[in-house]
Design a protein that fits this description.
Order of helices and strands: HHEEHEHHEHHHHHHHHHEEEEHHEEEEEE
Structural class: alpha+beta
CATH class: Mainly Alpha
Oligomer: single chain
Mean pLDDT: 89
Number of domains: 1
Number of helices: 16
Radius of gyration: 21 Å
Helix content: 40-55%
Largest sheet: 5 strands, mixed
Distance between the termini: 18 Å
């Protein structure tokens, strides 16, 4: 997704009748941030109708976004959580975490929490660091390579461990989840978007059905094993499969884009990259700013349970509401100077991981992965520069890059002084 570096006040007037936020290509080829800035100021609740008669409301302000995502009594996730599901409903309602409201949502989530927090992650950190080092060292002598493409395998190393999935299967799983997250992008498309999504769902559901059959009756402390042996009531094959699909999609569809998008932001702002190199203690802050800046989960869909008043008007009962996370994370009422990428930003209350009951189960895993990535990037690289024009993902769900060509110079030990690396940085 293209991200302009301008102030909200400097944004031009926008003709919203010409803005199609439903169109995946709009997010790759045009500038949704300019449209969102105009909407936050002039149309914080905006109704868009599609040519086929379907329509949805867009929410762009932070407080409204938190209310829609956080209040399941006013807005339900059980009629679809993705914009592409508009008008089609959700077959997995009440069965899949992202399509289930409390209290059932809490029953499904509770047994998995221990795998994604605290001691459950301790065994994963070494595996994450190994994966990061492999990503950053495609050639011992440096050279030119595509960071966005290589980063797609990074969360799979973590998810593969947490779900006990054989490593030879990882490449296929990454491709299928990419097809599911962005079926209209040329990198993933097979014939057309509908066919691509159908193929992805078929392959992923078939794969996890086979995993279920192979593990039936066996004990396991991985995520699949936990789902298969829940004490609150045994899940059906369908419930296990759709939740495995959801967990893997959530991991693979977002973290790589935060990696690539944050690196791009640093390369475009050498002074910010230099600040982190000179003070590695800023890495956790950099991670949070990278999450805010990239907002890789670009939108979530909800439906109003009753008439609900938000900024700018009333959402009628039953209507669909799209929450634009990248817009909420640039609301000037919450984030001072929101169009400045600031590695030292304080009180960074972004909602890149969502908000409320559906707050991302893998948020801690993602933060650890991103922290380790930037620790290793600072430790191993002398210089990193852009080697080509970034290519943006065509998706109304995921904001990210499909290509980020970089040229990397490995760090030379003799340049390190006093624990820091003296380096030239350029974009």
């Amino acid at each position: 997704m293209r991200i302009p570096e301008v102030t909200a006040e400097g944004m031009a007037a926008v003709d919203l009748s010409e803005v199609n936020l439903f169109d995946p290509a709009f997010h790759a080829e045009q500038d949704p941030h300019t449209a969102w800035a105009f909407m936050r100021e002039h149309a914080p609740l905006h109704r868009q109708e599609l040519p086929d008669g379907r329509f949805f409301w867009s929410v762009t302000r932070y407080d409204d976004a938190c209310r829609v995502l956080g209040n399941h009594q006013e807005f339900t996730s059980e009629r679809g959580s993705l914009l592409n599901q508009l008008g089609h409903g959700e077959a997995a309602a009440g069965k899949m975490l992202v399509a289930t409201d409390p209290p059932r949502h809490n029953e499904l989530r509770r047994p998995l929490n221990k795998l994604f927090t605290g001691r459950g992650l301790a065994r994963s950190e070494d595996r994450i660091r190994e994966a990061v080092r492999a990503l950053l060292a495609p050639s011992p002598d440096g050279g030119e390579w595509d960071l966005a493409q290589r980063a797609t395998m990074l969360p799979m190393a973590v998810a593969g461990t947490l779900m006990d999935l054989p490593e030879p299967h990882w490449e296929d799983l990454v491709r299928w989840t990419g097809m599911a997250a962005a079926p209209d992008d040329p990198v993933f498309m097979i014939r057309n978007g509908h066919a691509t999504l159908a193929i992805a769902h078929h392959e992923l559901f078939k794969y996890f059905s086979e995993q279920y059959a192979a593990r039936k009756g066996a004990e396991g402390d991985d995520a699949i094993g936990v789902l298969m042996t829940m004490r609150d009531g045994e899940l059906t094959l369908e419930e296990v499969v759709v939740n495995c699909y959801s967990l893997l999609l959530g991991a693979n569809a977002t973290t790589p884009h935060t990696v690539a998008g944050t690196v791009l932001a640093l390369l475009e702002r050498p002074e910010q990259f230099r600040a982190v190199r000179e003070n590695p203690a800023l890495v956790p802050s950099l991670v949070e700013e990278g999450l805010r800046w990239t907002s890789p989960a670009s939108s979530f869909l909800r439906h109003a349970v009753d008439d609900v008043e938000l900024s700018g008007g009333v959402v009628p009962r039953g209507d669909a509401v799209a929450v634009w996370v990248g817009s909420a994370n640039r609301d000037a009422d919450v984030f001072p100077d929101p169009y400045r990428f600031d590695v030292a930003r304080e009180a960074n209350r972004h909602i890149a991981f969502g908000y409320g009951a559906h707050y991302c189960l893998g948020a801690t895993v993602a933060r650890i992965t991103l922290r380790i990535f930037f620790e290793e990037l600072l430790r191993t690289t002398e210089d990193i520069t852009l080697a080509g024009e970034p290519r943006h993902l065509a998706s109304n769900f995921v904001a990210g890059l499909t290509s980020l060509a970089v040229r990397v110079t490995p760090r030379r030990p003799e340049t390190a002084r006093g624990g820091h690396t003296e380096t030239a940085l350029s974009a």
